[in-house]
Structure formats: C-alpha cells, structure tokens
Amino acid sequence: MKILVTGNQGYIGPLLGRHLRRVWPKATLIGHDTGYFALSTTNAPVWPERVYDQQFNGDVRELPASLLEGVDGVVQLAAISNDPMGQTFAEVTDQVNRGSSVRLAELAAAAGVKHFVFASSCSVYGFAPGAARREGDPLNPQTAYARSKIATEDALAAMDLKGMVATSLRFATACGMSDRLRLDLVLNDFVASAIATGKITVLSDGTPWRPLIDVRDMCRAIEWSLSRDAANGGPLLAVNIGSDVWNYQVKDLANAVAAAIPGTSVSINTQAQPDTRSYKVDFSLFRSLAPNHQPQISLERSIELLREGLSGMGFADANFRASTFMRLKMLQAHLDAGRLTGELRWAEGFLERA
Fold it and tell me: For residue 166, what is the enclosing H or E element?
C-alpha cells in the first residue's frame, strides 16, 4: 500500500503518520508539504516525519502528477486551516483549499488511485440553531474557510472519479496535543491559558455550540476512509466525523478545563453579542458506517494530554495569542521577514538568501 499525505507537516500530519505506520507497517508513506510550519515543533523529541518513507517539499498548488504514480490512497490535509487565516487570505484560501484539492483529486483519479480522502469541516453548518445537523441538512457557512470546503465537496460530486472512492470527512473542531501544536483552537487555547495565566476568559457569552474531536481520533477516521469499500457509504461520501457526546457549549469546555487544572478561574462575557458560529452535529451516519473507528479519546483525556504536553515544554507564555503558536501569526512572521509573498508562496531567491 502506498499513501500520499499532503500538508503532513501541520497539526494532524505527525500523529497521522505514526498512526498509519502502526496500522500498516509495510505501507509506503509519502509526505508533501510547503513547509510553512515545518519548524514549529512542540515538545517533539525527534523529527516527526521520520515515519514517512519520503518527504517532499513544495506548494500543493503545483504538486507534480508524477508523485501519484503507483499511489493507492491520497489524504488531502493541505489547507489554509482556520477562519482568521481565511479572512486575511481569502483568495489564497480558495486557491489552496478548493483549487488544489480539486486538481489533486483529478490527478489521483487519472492515475488510478483507489481512495481519496478530503479533510472537510463541520464548520460548513455555520450558524445552525436547533437540532443537531445531519449531512443532508442545509449548509450555512459563515467564513471563507467553510465556503472553500463546501466548494470542494461540490466539485468532487461533479467529477468523474473513474472508480476512485472519495470521502469528505466533515471533522468536528480539532483539539489535542500534537508535535506541531496549534493554540488557535478553542480547547487548546483554554488549556494554554489555564496553564500560563491561571484563568480562562471566554470572549463570547459561552452559549455557542461546538462539536470537538481529538486529533488522534481524526487519524482513526482517516484510516477508515483509506480502506472504505464503495458499498459502505457509496463511491462519493460526505460524512460528519466526531461523536454526539462531544457536542459542547463553549462555557462547558472552559469549566471542564478549570476542573482539570486546579486554581483556574473562568470569566465569561455575558454581555457579548451572539456568536454567528454555533452548531450541534449529528454523527449517527459515521457511527453506522464505521463502528470500529469511533472516537476513543474523552474530553478529560484530551485535556490531560494537552496539560502534560504543555507542562513538558515548560510553557508559560501568557501572551501566546500573539505568538507563532497561532497559525496566522506564523504566516505573518514569514511575510514580515520577506520569506513569503502575498500569495503565500516562498519568495523568489529566499532559499538562496537563506
């Protein structure tokens, strides 16, 4: 088995590589990444990509077709990965999240790849008061990031897949410790704030709903998608990935972190304007299709792993929201130093200067 993972030097890639290596020890694992965050390792004792057989660096927008020769499965993780980045780089978000994903799927189908896995998002439901949303319910994206995910799913639906099994995984909001930790995710932010400052400040009124999933459980879902038979869900599938018990209001997440880290105070802005991103999600389809790949990490365990990882790093940065632990801040640092262009391409001559 030969698997190509794009965007493998991000938040999910290091854990996914290890997971795939455990499940398929003889598989050939290929990584491809532009390298924005390659040096942003957090408490990693060794280079995370050691488990990949080959590592290529390049822009996913120009990924060479030759890289797909003999590949059995493709996992498209490469993306401008959150709402603040999408707002700042709206055009690039469309180019990378939709454009490169559609192109890669077309190349994969033409090359005879058997499985294509696209990392989509439950954020496509946007503002959705009331009952938990199922896959066939109306979508209400609030951001460029969410719109790019929907546009990719639509393009896959219109494509000739040439027998390729394609799965769009609508992931709940990611959380958990990683070799390349992000602190621009709600649970991760709360744990970091509790450790560094002893307090959690919830900027909203705490009532918005968020479904969450630990990054380790995301890897389990990707594994399932790489081996899914077309009869199990159809040759083209968009499916919510998470667990019903992980639908939480933001205030509940803050209080759970405070309970796990004694001495933490919680402040909630009860006068805040309503958050336009609030949705509960129904994960029953995933539960029926993948009973052996359901989430296993509890909220308490995810918080514990974050606490252990951050403490092991000696983390104490009370101003971490202005640091390169935030993906937008890391990109901005590259831009300010002249390493990236406004289209988020490595600047001409940068490698020679370096």
Answer: strand 165-171
